[in-house]
Design goal:
heterotetramer, A alpha/beta (about 300), B alpha/beta (about 400), C alpha/beta (about 180), D alpha+beta (about 90), B: about 400 residues, alpha/beta, Rossmann fold, 2 domains, seven-stranded mixed sheet, 14 helices, C: about 180 residues, Pyruvate-ferredoxin Oxidoreductase, domain 3, 6 helices, 7 strands, globular
Chain lengths: ~300, ~400, ~180, ~90
Amino acid sequence: MSYIDVLREAEDMVTPGMSACQGCGGELILRTVLQVSGKNTIIGIPPGCMAGAGVVGWNYSNGLKIPVHIPLLDNTASFLTGLSQMYERKGRTDVNIVAVAGDGATADCGFQSLSAAAERNEKMLYVCYDNEGYMNTGYQRSSTTTLGSKTSTTPVGSVINGKQQQQKYLPLIMSMHGIEYCATGSPSNMADLVAKIQKGLAASKHGFAYLHVFSPCPTGWAYKPEKAIEVARKAVQCNVFPLWEMDHDGYHLNEIKKPITVAEFVKGIGKFKNLTEEQIESIQQAADARYALLKKMAQ
Amino acid sequence: MGKKVVLTGNYSASEAAALCRPDLIAAYPITPQSSVVEYLAGMVHNGKLDSNLVQVESEHSACSVVQGAIAGGGRVFTATSAQGLALMFEPYTRMSTLRFPMVMALATREMTSPETVWSGQQDAMCVRESGWIQCFCDSNQEIVDMIIQGYKLAENKKVLLPVNVCYDGFYSSHLTEGVDLPLQEEVDQFLPPVHINHCVLDPENPFALDPLTPGPLMLKYRKSHLDAMEAALDEIEKIDKEFGDQFGRYYGGAISEYKTEDADVVIVTIGGMTGTGMDAVDLAREEGIKAGLIKLRFTRPFPAKRIAKAMEGKKAFAVIDRSVSFGWSTGPMYMETRAALVDADEKFAHFSVIGGLGGADISLDMILSTIRKLNVVKEEPGQKDTQWYMVD
Amino acid sequence: MKEIRLHGRGGQGVVKASQIVVRAAVAGGKNGQFIPFFGVERKGSPVFGYLRISEEEIRRKMQVYEPEILVIMDDSLVGLPATYAGLKDGGLVVVNSVKTPEELQIPKNAGQVAIVDATGIAEELIGRNIPNTAMLGAFEKASGLVNEEFLFAEIEKAFGAVNRQAAERAYEETKIITL
Amino acid sequence: MAEHLHITPIGNDGIYCLDTASWRVFRPVMDKEKCVNCGMCLAYCPVNAIIGTEDKKFEITYDYCKGCGICANECKKGAIEMVLEGGAK
């Protein structure tokens, strides 16, 4: 079955009308993950854009067609650990235990519980939609924010120009936890993403599966909504967001034969407007080094 | 009935928790609680206990993992102390406001700073507005019995609240004494398997657990929570009776009284100082002082009516806190006891006593000095200076 | 109610020994209570604990300030001011030593001193200086506070036959001197 | 839990749904002549406003389409045009 057929046939588990921004990558990722995982799923969605967009419900109604809980910003993997172990204890291992969490809840304050759940190889699929910041609250920087980015807590000032640090590259860190499955994905590469969600769900029956997905954010990044997929695609093509996966056979990299430059990627994106030549070069070097490392690991 | 064993307070908590057949246990070691989780780990690893044991990386996760397991329909157990409780504060508060029933042992400990690992009840007092039921134990036997009763109370349909079973760090957690440990079949008879359905996540009955909720609805949830606390006061008494009828041990419910009937002066104690207090009452009576004791067994819900009734016709009282209320220059339970007694200043001579902080001893002599002080001021209603049990 | 304070060094088994006494007391129908010293225990550091044995229920949970019995696991501790502090008049001192009461600076108000070479017994029988089980034999000989059969049985249950042997030998070899 | 006892906050009274169609300023309009039925628009639509029809074709629904324009931008055949809402058809 082609991924288009999968998506065409699968029921949408998310409310048709949710308050995610026009062109939101997170909404696309959430709908896609739940279309693949289906009705027999329990999901944890910590505070962040998706939870803020109403999918954990309002008043007495639900924003999804499946059971959902909004864990704390920093305990999604721990909460789902208890849930997952209870479902296994009850012999209902057919139920998918899934998290869809932003980068703040994943790479920052949620990292401790995430790392511990991964180390224990708890049975769940943890999907991080990485839009590089706290977008739900007006784009404050996170540890996955790209160097130089203009955010509300790393403004472009007369003395300091945007974020001063390179991003934390979480997916590789997660892959070193001895987990069942780890992959990066992008909504621009939908066939690849759907396949990885399927693999991740299968792996989650045996242990921890982690999926780190690039989540284009027109609002926070300041570009036109229709460019969302284009931005995600360029991030992949310039090796800022390489696509790879780790399974029992090791690391596998989607090689980019002719990468575009970081300079091409950042063009037209508002949060990068202020970047200096040096900053662009610095991001380029980080991307090249990361890609080279992944290539070696995938050999 | 039961079997006589010799246990520390922590091992008593572990044995009792195991008898309640928890589906899942998650706890992180911290002084002076560590041996609770060590003991349970030993039971699970030796096949004596069929529970999922999750070796978490922090108390925050301990509380979160058990929260997830309750959302999966399970009965759970955890234990902590002081800084660990502070770290788990975020999921801790959520536990009660989601109305998730469970039991957590708390080996009470002083909060830093100054740096300390020793006894004190400041940790429990810090979280008393977190919506949990709080009970304090005085003996290892009581730890066992209250953990078992705790599940019964927590899972009561009128209550549905988490229960903290508190006992003094070291003075109880590391105290070794004989305990009558109920048999498994006896506990099974008293405590049926957990059956909660108000909060269980299940694809067969999909709902949003904890949707975004606006203020007007929030008020309803909070009122319902307070109503449940109020209802718990009755259920505590009923469960105490039911437990006593089966096991032969009655504790008196939310408070217990010792020689208060004809007393002029009353000391109010919390937790592990109570036994010493009873000895002090006996010694004071030998001196001709009509002394009595009220043991505050539950601090949440606060048994205000029971205290008021117990204090009827008395002349003076002092509340001994192993913690402080920053801002009142007294102990916190003194403030609450006083609040429970209408016109306290007109009716009673009273003062707050603070002692036993950071592992300092609360001795017989200290409590005796309080009783003598009460006896001196008993005819002069009103608040007296706070007494500090200084140790030089 | 008898109040006992035990002194030893981290690693000598003060806590385990005391818990065995409580078990023996409970097995014999008495009440027992042990509260360890709450310090940062390290191997070699001075440690102590509070033990109570009673026919009645033991309610107080506090330190022992005026012990009737002192159990000293290591005679190098007798120089510390805390060791003999508060001993009741006519009280009993049980000490692991090969020295004389004079050398041990037994306080003047003590009534009896029981001396045993628990270290020697432990090293010979167990192969290490873990004098706690031998000291229990001496404690029992001098105090008779718990049923000796229950005590030896509890020692064997906790530490094996060799330790029971150590306790029994110490029981035989303990010299009790009335002062 | 239909009576909502205000014990545990639970949402089970149906689906929370916003009228996101009202957000739309531009409306995607598909030119069926140009469409090759590749399904890219369906794959990339964040709102799932594009559905597969029984004859293996694709159709834009407007009940919740926010008008983000991704479908038009991604369509390799240029078969989708963004048209101002309320403007001339």
